[in-house]
Design brief:
Layout lengths: L3 E4 L4 H7 L5 H4 L3 H4 L6 E6 L2 H9 L3 H11 L4 E6 L12 H13 L4 E4 L10 H9 L3 E7 L8 H14 L3 E5 L7 H14 L3 E5 L7 H10 L4 E4 L13 H10 L8 H20 L14 H4 L3 H13 L6 H14 L9 H15 L8 H8 L11 H8 L17 H8 L6 H9 L1 H26 L1
Parallel strand pairs: 1-2, 1-8, 2-3, 3-4, 4-5, 5-6, 6-7, 7-8
Helix pairs in contact: 6-7, 6-20, 8-9, 9-10, 14-16, 15-16, 19-20, 20-21
Amino acid sequence: MKVQFTETALRDANQSLIATRLPFESFEGILTTMDKAGYYSLECWGGATFDSCLRYLDEDPWERLRKIRKACPNTKLQMLLRGQNLLGYKHYPDDVVRMFVKKSVENGIDIIRIFDALNDIRNIEVAVDETLKNGATASGAICYTKSPIHNLESYVRLAKQMEELGCQTIAVKDMAGILGPQEAYDLVKALKENVKLSVVLHTHSTTGLGPLTLQKAVEAGCDVIDTAISSFSGGTSQPPTETMAYALREQGYETGLDMKVLKEINDFFKPIKAEFLKEGKLNPVVLSTDTDALNYQIPGGMLSNLVAQLTAQNKMDKFEEVLLETPRVREDLGYPPLVTPMSQMVGVQAAANVLAGERYKNISKEIKAYIHGEYGKAPGEINPELQKKVLGDDKPVTCRFADTLEPYFEKAKAEIGDKAKSDEDVLSYIAFPAQAEAFFDKREEKAKNTFKYSIRRID
């Protein structure tokens, strides 16, 4: 029996622990070693990495990907894609989605894990189709959550739809770490019995259930598990790679991992972690176990956002009230899974309700767009009174929202003009206009300064 491992240190682990502030230069020296570890894949791109590269790290996310590809020729590179949302917080037209997927594969991605925040299958169709057309692996991801309308049957039904779309693997995405060991066993077993695809499980250690959940999932037939090298594991990150490999080997599973190489990788990341702790960029709180998530179903990243929001307004005394309000807002919205961008939207609205002293006195534009149908079909029924307050006598969009959007790639290319040096630059601009333009300006200034310096040396 064999179980394979996806290493998350380069994407979700550092996103969960240090808000994706890991610059390329800090891990460049260990990439060739990671390429020898025997991983199924390296999750190294997508999610918040793209935004963070442009906004905080002064890096070109596309160049970052190309460098990782060059250093790791033998291991599959994997990214996380939010379906029609790509890596942003709104839906993009199909031409943009197709171009983004095409360029992701061209620049080095082998596996694209594609999800929709509402589990609306319509919102992953185009991304899956384009992934397959470009010869990469399309992994359909189910956002796991708990509610009166989410159950084993609904998840199996979604997996079957993904299989029909052409997805080559099914990933269960447990973003809050609320999937229990027995629930994982039952879900994986049901998926293996109903679809003919490999099953992948992604969870977090937030609630302390992570290692147990992965172990039971493997016992049910899970083919691939997501883990993080131990120095970047635990808390809001994933369970530790070495620990899971050790435990599963004791049970007789083959992992394909080289434990000596894993030690080299961990030893490399230890001082990086220590430095982030010293600088205060890694808050020890995110390394602890938080069982409140079992009650509130709030992912670690969402909790940190709420804390930052309330701290900025000097309202941390309202934190518990906001936690209590969050599941109420989620119920009003038809029980959307709390995953990006829905987690941020629900959290912000819950805070607004508490701080205003009146529910829905102020409604965010994102929540209004959601109720209008601009994010897809709500999983359950939206509170009729809230819907009336937002829409009045208007009707919500019932078609796939992307069908209402005009093609935009060529228009964006004209807008950004000479600042964009490639189609990849245009895509960066479409995803994060202000951040991309600022990055292009800095890049241009650096190029001018380098040219002036070279001229002076020649003179």
